[in-house]
Specification:
CATH topology of the largest domain: Fumarylacetoacetate hydrolase, domain 2
Largest sheet: 12 strands, mixed
Order of helices and strands: EEEHHEEEEEEEHEHEEEHEEEEHE
CATH class of the largest domain: Alpha Beta
Shape: globular
Number of strands: 19
Radius of gyration: 19 Å
Structural class: alpha+beta
Number of domains: 2
Length: 309
Amino acid sequence: MKLAFFDDFRLGIVRDDVIHDVSAVVQDIPHVGPGDLINGLIARFDAYRGRLEEATRQAGKPLAEVRLRPPLPRPGNIVCMAVNYLEDGTLAKPAPINAFHKAANAIIGPGDTMVLPDVPATIFEGEAEMAVVIGKRASRVPAAQAMAHVFGYINFIDGSARGLPPAGNVFFQMKSRDTFAPIGPYLVTKDEIADPQKLSIRLWVNGVLKQSFNTDDMAHSIARCIEWVSAIHTLEPGDILATGTNHRGLSSFMDGDVVELETEGLGRLQFNVRDDLKRTWSRETRLDRQKKGLEGPTPQLTGKYATAE
């Protein structure tokens, strides 16, 4: 099942190119906003699934006629795994398992705009990721039982404002900026994904393919990530666990960019980028620079904060 919010945050189920309004089915779930509603539905999904399926037998609207919204407007936690890919097998061994939090205020949805702030970042990037959505409370869950706590999967972008001063004061100000977590276009329940550890992930910037990798290159499996995170703090229904990216295809995000992310089976997320300062960078990927013997991301070319390489 593909769950989505649309227009004024009506809840819908997507089938083919049609969305069916199922808001009436879930109106009795206690909530004060759409975030509470979807989190509450996830926690009670078994009790509602039959009625949701029944509601899709009625006529729906073409997707082209509605505005899709972020399918998880207010997750309690967004946990992002760090350096969790073997980079197409180029890393000799996995990096130690690690993660960071991202603010829920960073969430935006399909067709929305990532806004680059007026800060002296060396570059702005967005990392293509497949994210896990938690279905039931997970506390100190062993890896062998972890997948039973998964509700589904979504496309996820981990926006980054890299290189901000002072040195060592990094992740919060780099990762938790408003608009820096595009997700969508919908939330796909786990029964629709045969093997989440074998999904292709691709990201395009203005129609040019930049990232292309597979979840089978993860250094630490989804189950291991849930085990490790849930040993630190409890994960609740509707929480997001982003599983990391292959960094070799990362490139700059700039004003006017149209970015598309597609994980196999999860639909295609499209969003825009705006930079009121109109800063520019080369379009090189990190892999392009590595082939030239250069380290790190491409330097800023023009605009406020630009410096020579």
